[in-house]
Structures are given as structure tokens and as C-alpha cells.
Design brief:
23% of the residues lie in helices and 36% in strands. It is α+β, with helices and mostly antiparallel strands.
């Protein structure tokens, strides 16, 4: 499994609705609300044999209320 972090900017007033929709899809390991430029951050484990872009697009990016995302690929956990 590959670990990626995805940050979400939500439409104003929609953060909790977006968080519920993300959580309901059961594809994130952890989901947090955050301060600053982004509203949410999710830790997602993507199967090795699956294309990360397609996986995230199919499972998360179509959720209503998301304005923008930022995906960070990881390499090694310490």
C-alpha cells in the first residue's frame, strides 16, 4: 500500500458535509479538520497495483462541495 495525504478546500459552510461524505466512502485511514488554507486532510492508503490518480478521482474527487485538492505522495515513514 502507498500512503498519500490529500488536502481539501471546501465551499464555505460545507466542510462538515464534505467530511461526512469522505468518511462514508470508507477509503481514508484518517481524516482531520485543519486550520489555514485547507479545510480537511486525509490519510489514504492506495493499493500498489492501482494508479493513484485514478483511485483518488474515482473514490474522492467527485464529492460535492470540494473546491480544490492537493495530493502529497509519500516515500518513507520514519
Amino acid at each position: 500500500m502507498r500512503c498519500v495525504f490529500v488536502q481539501f478546500r471546501c465551499e464555505p459552510g460545507k466542510t462538515y458535509e464534505v467530511a461526512d461524505r469522505i468518511y462514508d466512502r470508507e477509503v481514508v485511514s484518517e481524516l482531520y479538520s485543519t486550520s489555514g488554507e485547507w479545510d480537511l486532510i486525509a490519510k489514504v492508503y492506495v493499493p500498489e497495483e492501482v494508479d493513484v490518480g485514478h483511485y483518488l478521482n474515482e473514490n474522492l474527487f467527485g464529492i460535492e462541495g470540494i473546491q480544490r485538492t492537493l495530493t502529497t505522495m509519500t516515500f518513507k515513514a520514519f
